[in-house]
Amino acid sequence: MGLTGGEFVLLSLTVGIGAVLQVSVGFGLGMLAAPVFSLVDPTLAPPVVLLLAAGVTAAVLAREGGGTDLRGCGWALAGRVPGTAAGALLVVLLPARHLALLIAGVVLAGVAASAAGYAPRPRRSSVFLAGTVSGLMGTATSIGGPPMAMVWQRLSGPRLRATMSAFFLVGSLMSLAALAAAGAIGAHTMQRTALLAPAAAAGVLLAGPLTRRLNARHTRTAAMALAVAGAAGLVARHVGP
């Protein structure tokens, strides 16, 4: 289906803000965009969100890739392999309504874990498990950031962004390959991605000057509030008669 002018503006703003978050803290585009995309057009999440996120993370990695924790990233990607396969299976098997509710649930769980300050130690086993969960949720809902953000939150800012971006770039490509094999990516996906790519590029360009002016804690809190609002909207739309 086509997008109205209002829907296009809403999706573009969501992508732009999400790209700023992705560049600033290493994740956020999926958590912010997936509920909104699902409200507008359920076919846009996860494939379009993953394609846009892959482009944004590639830009971050090109700028800060030298600080990547390669060993930790390797264990996380090893865990992502079985998670990706399971996530693609969910996309094929779950009806659109159930997939939308799963997206809402993942957003709410991620926000709750972040607010609680849960911080597992980044051992090999915990990084592998986080990668598995991230792969499953990232492929099924395009929201794979929270597990990795929790396990890597002790990393410094530039190292966190570089490591998260390396993981999500490779992980997103894995998820997209699995979704393509499952028949979940078509011409409609590519058209919508091309339409919204300028908004993602604008977010990347604006992230530098905006990040220096905005309070990181307040920005993250506002983003979490927007994500919860989107998730609540999804639940309200799909629960009930």
Automatic annotation (TrEMBL):
It is a multi-pass membrane protein. The chain crosses the membrane at residues 12-37, 44-62, 74-94, 99-119, 125-145, 166-187, 193-210, 222-240. The keyword ATP-binding does not apply. Its main location: membrane. Keywords: Cell membrane, Membrane, Transmembrane, Transmembrane helix, Transport. It is found in: Cell membrane. It holds the Pfam family TauE. InterPro entries: TM_pro_TauE-like, TSUP. It comes from the Bacteria. Belongs to the 4-toluene sulfonate uptake permease (TSUP) (TC 2.A.102) family. This is Probable membrane transporter protein.
